[in-house]
């Protein structure tokens, strides 16, 4: 996953209620209901209060990101889950989570961020969950994606999963990346996916955008009335871009966490395969 920084996520716990309000305004749902909708399960079909969730800090790689665990815990509590951060890290933290009876364990290193369901021995992955959430947000904001063309900026892990999910939604996809060969690889692999080398021209020509890139996007490139779903961090848009766009849906962490939480539950309650391995094998959720 893209490595967050303490500065990027420092305000997440205090702004969770603002995110709920913004989602209600932009797509008509709060975060919990949106996550359920993204996974195509009824919001009233999950007893979120019945889940104890542990967040285990992990020190490997570049180490613990300040505020990350508390931000994840805040998002889960907003959904009604009982979340706690283990006092120990790494393997000792996992042992503590199991000993405490955690139903779901969230943990992340520099490469993966997963939610492990201890009841079902299944897991959900942040990369797939983030892509699924932001494609769903784009669909809701636009009123449907079937037969429409969507630009995906960034052909990394989230962008690649977004391309797959958009195809399943019936959209045609333009994909662009600062490294053209990454976009071209996706274009050659999938039908209805077209690699675009000129990033700026691609932005000018597409009113529907999923931005999975960390780069800034100049506001003068954005079409008036554009609908943008943007999991990329940091925030990519200037004031002109905000004026031109009809809507920009963005959050640095919580939306992906919310979809991960619901995805980690889906297998046990609804028989839905909900991890990135299943998604990579082409199963449409």
Structure in words:
This protein is 41% helix and 17% strand. It is α/β, with parallel strands linked by helices and 285 residues long. The chain folds into two domains: 6-126 and 254-280, 3-Layer(aba) Sandwich (Rossmann fold), CATH 3.40.50.12150; 129-250, NAD(P)-binding Rossmann-like Domain (Rossmann fold), CATH 3.40.50.720. The protein has a six-stranded parallel beta sheet with strand order 8-7-6-9-10-11. A five-stranded mixed beta sheet has the order 2-1-3-4-5, with helices on both faces. The two termini are 22 Å apart. The model is unreliable at 271-285 (pLDDT under 50).
Give structural attributes.
about 280 residues; alpha/beta; Rossmann fold; 2 domains; 6-stranded parallel beta sheet; 5-stranded mixed beta sheet; globular; disordered C terminus
What is the string of helix and strand elements? HHHEHEHEEEHEHEHEHEEHEHH
Strand arrangement, major sheet: 8-7-6-9-10-11
How many strands, what sense, and barrel or not for the largest sheet? Answer: 6 strands, parallel
Strand content: 15-25%
Give the second-level CATH assignment, the architecture of the largest domain. 3-Layer(aba) Sandwich
Please tell me the total number of domains: 2
* Tally of individual helices: 12
Total beta strands: 11
CATH topology of the largest domain: Rossmann fold
Shape call: globular
Decide which structural class fits the backbone. alpha/beta
What's the quaternary structure here? single chain
Q: Supply Rg.
A: 18 Å
- The whole-number mean of residue pLDDT values reads 88
- Low-confidence runs: 271-285
- CATH C-level name of the largest domain: Alpha Beta
**Distance between the first and last residues' Cα:** 22 Å
Helicity level, as a percent range? 40-55%
